[in-house]
Each structure stands twice: as C-alpha cells, then as structure tokens.
Amino acid sequence: MLLKKALLLSVLSSMMWVLTPMTLQAQPPAAQNAMPKLNDEQKAMMMELQRVQQSLQQTQQALQKIQQKVYQDNPKLKSQRDDLQKSIAQAMSDDDYNAESELAALNQLVEKYQNTKEQPTQQQISDFQAKQQAFQQRQRAAFQNPDIQKQAEALQVRLRKAIEQSGESGQSLLVRLEEQMKKLKTLRQKAMQMMQGSSAP
C-alpha cells in the first residue's frame, strides 16, 4: 500500500501536477524561538527522521530519472500520462479558474526568487500561499473523481511494470522506496508519540 501511494505520487510529480510546498522566505527568528526545546532523545529522533527523509528524496529523484527515460522510450505510456494530465486539468478548472495557468504562475514566481537575490514581500508570500492552497484543494477534489482514479491507477500499474523491466536499478529503487516509506511512517509515529508524551502534564 505504501509503495502504491509512493508510486502514484511519483507518477503525478513527474507530470508537474503535484505542487511541492515551497517557502519563499526563511522562517523568522521569532517563530524559531517559539519552537519547544527538545531533550537528547527527541533530538536524536528528529535527526534520524531528517536523515530518512533526505534518503527518501534521493531515491525519488533517482526513480524520476528512470521514469523520464521510460516515458521517452514508451510513447504509448507517455500518451497515457498526458491524457491523465489533461483530465486532471479539466477537473480542476472552471469558468473562473484555469489550472494550467495557475500552476505556471506559481512555478514562475518560485523560479524568480530561487534564481535571484531579491526577496519577496510578506504580501507576495501570503498571496502565493493562498493560491497554492487553492490549487491543492482543487487537485484533491479532482482525485475524488472515479474516472481520474481509474486513469491514475492504470498508469501506475503500467509505469511500475516498465520501471521493473528497465533493469536491476529500477527494481532495486522500488524496493528501497518501499522500505524507506515504511521506516519514515514508523519514525513519524514514534516522534509524534514522543512529542505528545513530553507535552503531557
């Protein structure tokens, strides 16, 4: 189940329809000072959690490179992905909202501040976050559509098979992804229990 979810996210992110949460400005010092103090055990847990998250991101990046090649080598699979992307865009859009235009505008804003030393204003950050949230809400709503769910699952099955057939590296990455997803889930549960225990009176 975890691998199925991870692969579905990977399918979507390869289409640029999952918008990664982005921060246009570093967290202000006041907010950092408001963070609760951690004991040694909690610090060790958070460091391990961060390490696993970074490893998972590296695995996902490596897997996405294989996905890109798989799509290039398989026109039918690429066409299936493009059809799903169109279905998502149509489901998210209406007379007053164009999902493709909104995503392009959000990505353009992020790229602008990633590639320059210019800092966004607080108003720009607030506007970005509001638009990002609206995009993600429409995206989640689109995936309640049974037809889109069927399209996504069908693509996911074919994509996994193609990755497995691409060679040992693809197979090993899928195994590693599942292991890391399981470990991350376990660590998050432990961290939550630990933080709740420390905050209890």
Task: Describe the protein.
Helix content is about 80%, strand content about 0%. With about 200 residues, it is mainly α. The protein has one domain. The longest helix is centred in the N-terminal third of the chain and has 34 residues.
The poorly predicted ranges are 2-35
Mean pLDDT: 79
Instruction: Please provide the ordered H/E string of secondary-structure elements.
Output: HHHHHHHH
Helicity level: over 70%
Largest sheet: none
What is the tally of beta strands?
0
Summarize the structure.
This protein is an all-alpha fold and 201 residues long.
Topology:
Blueprint: H1 2-14, H2 29-33, H3 40-73, H4 75-92, H5 99-114, H6 122-142, H7 146-165, H8 168-199
What keywords describe this structure?
201 residues; mainly alpha; 79% helix; disordered N terminus
